Structures are given as structure tokens and as C-alpha cells.
């Protein structure tokens, strides 16, 4: 196997060429990867089904999402707004004294290490959003393969690397390493300038500490976990209780609950009357979990929830371990009175990765905003179910301080791949709060550089007056500083 240093040096060599690659070339390369993955969908999906236990429909949908992400970042590259080009013309009459010509823009950060996720073997793995956004920014990527789908990782890397090379990107633009030791060694290598991660709080915190302890620390963009609380008003339950029950069960049970946005705690009125509807909606076929380790963790987490004082079962769910050690599960829905939830919130506030959720049955007049403020530190999502006339303004403001995405009358699973999406939140949902979905994800892998009084032929293409890349430029002309603030009442 190629040594870590050889891989790092290949990425470093590619970084110099990629940084100067025209946007159109990078964009076409991303589209080429999308086309290649789509053309090999049958082979890749079959591998994914075998290694992860995820259903064919889920994996085909995820592969399509992966291709769409690549195409979205191709458009982002060509648009060029992410470069944030600013040009201040030289101004001898500047309000604070003569101003030099200053031009700034975002440039590639350098080789990026991407720790692939296990629960999204396409969309957050070898050719997923982290890889797409880093390549789009002009950086080579080294992917640390997830051990849950090694054969799929290798084949995806082969297909994607071939597509990138065929589109004109340098060798070393996309490489793969395997194993925990290799991932840690690569994270410590001085060539690597940023890292991304999707996984557990424990694993992510360990890697974040490694990144911070380097002689030259680097940004570590980790998505670590989230309970994703849901708050439903009495009027919302009275208005659409059956639909609420069906939506909750589907969100909790989809993909065996192995989603970072699965709703883990649901605050709703004590007299909700949804037990029967929830139990019926949760009666679905068993689904295999990703691997024996995750099944074991889920079983222990579920047992801890169900053994907490005051917890009752609405839908008991099931856990079956087969002869290969694989776990097969159905959704579990439990409930606890708010009065019983309070004495031991830690046992119930921890993320349990799998198809389980807890209803916190709250008496009339419960202040949801106060609960959110006191109990939650940082989440990927907060969902609010309301009816016309409900005053949830304070709850919404509190939710915005605690989560990266606040959604209404819906469920947090099924993250839309759109330019405006924010998939990140305050610690411990993520390490740095940045998004890993949407076009803003590219901002993780660039850094701003300013050039002062630079000769035209020394400037990067997007900062030149002739603007050969045709990117947006914000220009501050000479003379404007003398009128700053005059038009503001």
C-alpha cells in the first residue's frame, strides 16, 4: 500500500496545479464525476447494499443526491461568488490618509483530508459533499475510507479519480487511505491544511484534538451528533395529530434511524392521545443496521433509555442479532412525563443512533423556549409544529441560537441539497458550526489573501481588472470614503 508520506506529497503536488486550474475545467471535472457515478450506479448500489444493509431505493436516491451535489458545486465554481473578490482602488484622498490599491479574494486552502461517514456511503463518503466542495474550491482531497463499506469506497475512488483525470485535473486530486492509524497519521501530516468528519462525538472530539495539537493547527470541520428536538403545540396536535404521528414514525424509522437528523426527543402535550396512531405507524418491517458495532451501541443506548425511571413504551420495537452479528431492528417509541424527565435528563438527552425516540409529555402551559434554553447546547436542527394563532416567536429565537436549521411543521430527516441549506450547528452538533451541505460548504476550504499595490501581471486571475474568469467583483472606487454615512438617517 502507498505510504502516508507518498500520498501526502502527491496531494501537495496536485495542490499547486489545482489552485491555478480555471473554473470551467474544475466544473467540468465535477460533472464528469457525477456522470461516471451515475453510469456505474448498478455496480455501486449492489456493493452498497451488500456492505451496509441499506435498501436499494435508499441507495439509488443517495447516489442521485451525490451526483446532484457535484453538479451544484460545478455551478458554484463557475459563478465565482464564493471567491468574495473585493477591489479597493488607490485613493490619495482617502478619509484616513492615502489608500493603496488593495485587492482580496479567497484562494484554495490546500490538501483536505475527508473522513468518510458510514451511514451515507455515497453522499458523505468518497465522492460526497465534503469531497465535492473541497475539489470545487481547488483543493486535492485525501479520503479516509469508512471501514463499514471498504469495497464500495475503493470502487468509488477508482471511478471518481479516473473521471477527474480524464477531465484534465492532475494526478493526486483524489486519493484514498484506509485504517484508523492511516487516518490519524494523515491528519498529523504537515501537508494537510484542513479536515472534515461526520461521525460520533467521541471519535470526532479525538480527531479535533489531534488537529488542534499539531505544531501548526488546522481547522477540523466535524459533524458529531444531535438529538434534534421537536416541539409541538397543543393546537398543532389537535389540528393534525394523526399526520404528526405518521410523520414522526417515518422520520424515526427511516434507514433504521441511522441519520444524524433523526428526531430523538419530542416535546408535546401530555394529553396528546397519539399512542395508538404511533404504535400503528411504527409497525414496519425490520431493517438491518449498518454493522454489528453500531447495532451493539444502539442496543445498549436503547436499554438505557427504557430502564430510566418513569419511561413507558408506546411502540416497543425490536432488536434481533443474526448469526453474523448483524442487528435487525424496528422502531421504538417511548414516552416520559416532563416531571420524570427532569431528574435524569442526561440519560435521555444523549443521542442514541438508531430507530428510537422519546416523547416528553408536557403539562399545559409548559414553556418550550425555557426547556430548549436550559436543556440543549447545540443541535443540527430544531423542529416546531404549530397552528395558526400560536405565538412561538420566543421559541423560534431560542431555536436559532441553539441550532443550525429551524424547521416548521415538518421533520428534520431528508436534508435538502440546496444553496441555502445549513447543515451544522453549535457545539456539540459540530466543531466549528460550518455547514457540510449547500454551496456555503465551499467556504470551509478557502482562505482570504489580500494583495497591496500588486502589478497587474502578478495578480490572480479573479482580481485583475480584465477579470478573465468573469467572477463578481465588489469595487470600492476612489473618493467614496468622504461620503460614508452621509445617506444614513
Automatic annotation (TrEMBL):
Domain Aldehyde dehydrogenase: from-to ranges: 3-363
According to the lineage, what is the superkingdom?
Bacteria
Q: Does the keyword Cell inner membrane apply?
A: no
In terms of InterPro entries, this protein maps to: Ald_DH/histidinol_DH, Ald_DH_C, Ald_DH_N, Aldehyde_DH_dom, Aldehyde_DH_Superfamily, ALDH_KGSADH
Please tell me whether the keyword GTP-binding is annotated for this protein.
no
Keywords annotated in UniProt: Oxidoreductase
SUPFAM superfamilies xref list: ALDH-like (SSF53720)
Know the name of this protein?
A: Aldehyde dehydrogenase (NADP(+))
In which organism is this protein found? Glycomyces endophyticus
